Amino acid sequence: MSKVSGLLYLPLAAGLVLSGCSSNGGTTTADGGTTKTDGSTTKTDSSTPPPTEIKCNNDCKDLVLNRILLPSSPTEAQKFAVDFNNDGTKDNALGSILSALSAVAKDLTLQASIDHNVNQGKALILLRLQAKDFANAPSAAAQAWLGKQTACCTSTAAGEESKCADEAAKTCFAGSGEFEIDPTAPKDALFGGSITSGAIKFGPAKLNISLPITDAGTLTVSLQKAQFMGKFDGSKITEGVLAGGVTKADLDNNVIPTVATLLDKTAKDPKTSATTKNQILNLFDANKDGTITKDEVAKNDLIKTFLAGDVDVDGDGTPELSLGIGFSAVLAKIK
Question: In the predicted model, is pLDDT for residue 9 greater than 70?
Fold first, then answer.
């Protein structure tokens, strides 16, 4: 697949059901979903209701995400995708856009930047699981927070990413790291869920996440109907997937400006290869003035259709843009 054709790979891709009808005026489908008046379907939310709060009594496990994984290819975009509208197709439009940007412009190094920010303690997501049995629990609960910035490594200079990763693995991510909740972050991300033979599945709930994508800026979004899943062995979560819907307001105010800034800085960076620079400018610099604006990104023919939203994850009649990312987590202590 060519770099440009990689950008063209963008997949097109919960209400309470009462006696064959739903709050959106549709009818119940055979699989328990809802057919709305416009012919589309939404997935019935059959998950455990979220708790109003978590009070631990020797039945909680605290964790910190030690890796946050952006999809770097169409295959990974599907790996981290979730079928939000129950149509047989997994949804991850924003994840596919981000993976396509990496394919088009290799110099963006999005994953390396996120890894370094996590290892420096600048991008921390904290997680608390509550269950009677962490191998099997038909009813479990979870809460997530953004963590306060913590010094996980002292090797923070450019070129010391590997040293920082090694140091962080022994400090913050050794299974005993202590973390504080960011006092400015929302604290209402509460999830209901279950654990089956170590496989965890929680959600939906609203969740705020921040992804520092290079020095150009941090992508901050509020995921609607967020859910997460993975494998938990009592000490770590592996094969984690975190997914949800990004609202149009978040797209307009956060995603598009951040992506535009990222592309513009990369195109103007003297360290960027001529090939990458030309690809970015040819794709996004509509007026050929050498600067990429948020308006040019929003109106780009290759992605504007998807920025309108691909799935209605919360059943309110307004489509959100699906996003799925991968993660892993290790034991921690949340103070």
Answer: no
Cis amide linkage into residue 204, ω under 30° from 0: yes
Q: How many CB atoms lie within 10 A of CB 82?
A: 25
Contact 320, 224 (CB under 8 A): yes
Q: What percent of the chain has pLDDT over 90?
A: 50
Question: Judging by beta carbons within 10 Å of its beta carbon (0-12, 13-18, 19+), is residue 47 exposed, middle or buried?
Answer: middle
- At residue 289, the pLDDT reads 96
Cβ–Cβ contacts within 10 Å for residue 100, how many?
25
